[in-house]
Design brief:
Cyclophilin, 2 domains, 7-stranded mixed barrel, 6-stranded antiparallel β-sheet, 3 helices
Length: 289
Amino acid sequence: MTDRALVVVRAGALTTVQDRGRPGHAHLGVPRSGALDGPAAALVNRLVGNPPDAAVLETTLNGCALRPRSTVTVAVGGAPCPVTVGGRPAAWGAPVVVQAGELLDVGTATAGVRGYVAVGGGVAVEPVLGSRATDLLSGLGPAPLTDGTVLPLGAPAGPPARVDGVPQPGPPAELVLRVTLGPRDDWFTGRAVRDLTTRAYRVSAASNRIGLRTEGPPLERARTGELPSEGMVLGAVQVPPDGRPVVFLADHPTTGGYPVIAVVRAADLPSAAQALPGTPVRFVPVRRR
């Protein structure tokens, strides 16, 4: 039994292992997956001295609790939350040493949705197609964590960052998503396109790692029937039969038959990972490059 390991004491609502994902396999029906808030995951890795592709833990809303079998350096970022080590308050957004057997408790988010926990050496579960990411759609990668799960850790790659803390963007009060219209905007009426780009939507509580669902005015179709299945990309704004846009996130399907009215700029998707249900959403059209 290795002492380079974490024991999951409290798994939380949904805690998964994530890294930068497995791009390049869409032709096999495999989504990219990976951390929804990539900049937050990269930052906590940097704080503990890991390379940017090291695997971290992604928590959802109510955090998790972990007990290392050896002394480790950790950093918690993403959605702000209280952090304790051995029952004592500890820093959020900075490197923290956790002694062997101490309990690291990552509490409920005070804002935002998804937190990130990096450990020096990274989470060293077995990679699948070059990635350690949990993919909720295809089932590839490790299963979502449960109480009692033991996670192996890699050897530390470098010293922790010498900082007291670093600035991180706060969760959005309003989610502004820049979109390029198409490829199937011609399947919708002119009024529908105007509604998408001028009217207010809200983040639905039914959102998940596959897609950010919205509530708001349904988009009227100009054409009936359905498309043959075609390729789907990260950030695609697909419109299902109820007419309410869905923004595809990391675990999205690689094909689909509902029309895609627009595609969100990749740089705006990390904010979507932190948008709580009820957050206002605006789709802002930009020109094709």
